[in-house]
Amino acid sequence: MEIKNLLVVGSGLMGSGIGYVSGVGGFQTTIQDIQEESLEKSKKTIEDTLSKGVERNKLTADEAEAALKRIEFTTDLKASAEKADFVIEAVPELQKIKQSVFENLDQYTRPETILATNTSTMSPTEIGSYTTRPEKVIAMHFFNPVPKMKLVEIVKGLETTDETAATVKWVAEKMGKETVRINEFPGFVTSRISSLVGNEAFNMLMEGVGTPEEIDKAIELGLNYPMGPFKLGDLVGLDTRLNNLEYLHKTLGERFRPSPLLIKYVKAGRLGRKTGKGVYDYKDN
């Protein structure tokens, strides 16, 4: 099946990034969300990213203009799904939301359309069970920020065919990404490691081992991480980090029990950059 029209469901940080690399990669791209305000923010984010790409000589002005023309924004899931050859869901990591999205996508898209989920922890087998085409459902895990991060984890469900996985690999490579194929297990590879490091950083902060700045600096310089666990958590969203940990705690056991301090931050609404304050304060940025 030829892939020309790509639909991204969800216009948040990840959805916007996926929409960007899709448009730059040459796909006719639709970004769908239920909120107009979120779509407007997504469009501005993509325009800004394209402008920065031109400034840094990553793209020519003509390439950026052409990419933007390939991307459209809509609140109409049914109409955008009907014309899609390939769908990437990028909604919050909550089972009820993903189930609703995939049940609708299964109803609205053509039977041959591949349905990918940008999940960092959840089972593509379970998500495939929400549809009548589990052989065409797969996890396609992008990383934040999507335009900069090179990796996509590809995770087959129990029924996913090799043909589906091969098509997903081709799509990811057209977007300029490198891929790894991971056997399905909660958290895959990267989320299990990242969740453990981020959670332990919160435990160390709670225990008074060091300040956030000191802990981040130690990890960055001592372990050669490009970004410390608190900076990364604030970027991804502490609520997202907590959701991932709760899922991994439920599926993999005690070592993933969320830090009480992380839970406290989320309850206080300190979710990171998107709220202006997480571990660090971004209100003046």
TrEMBL record:
Q: Which InterPro entries match?
A: 3-OHacyl-CoA_DH, 3-OHacyl-CoA_DH_NAD-bd, 3HC_DH_C, 6-PGluconate_DH-like_C_sf, 6PGD_dom2, NAD(P)-bd_dom_sf
Q: Which UniProt keywords apply?
A: Oxidoreductase
Looking at the record's lineage, which domain of life comes first?
Answer: Bacteria
- What region holds the 3-hydroxyacyl-CoA dehydrogenase C-terminal domain? 187-282
Q: What family is this protein classified in?
A: Belongs to the 3-hydroxyacyl-CoA dehydrogenase family.
The yes or no answer to whether the keyword Oxidoreductase is present is yes
Among NCBIfam families, the record links this protein to:
PRK09260.1 (NF006722)
Quote the Pfam families the UniProt record gives. Answer: 3HCDH, 3HCDH_N
* Name of the protein described by the UniProt record: 3-hydroxybutyryl-CoA dehydrogenase
| Pathway field | Lipid metabolism; butanoate metabolism
Domain 3-hydroxyacyl-CoA dehydrogenase NAD binding intervals? 7-184
Q: In which organism is this protein found?
A: Siminovitchia fordii
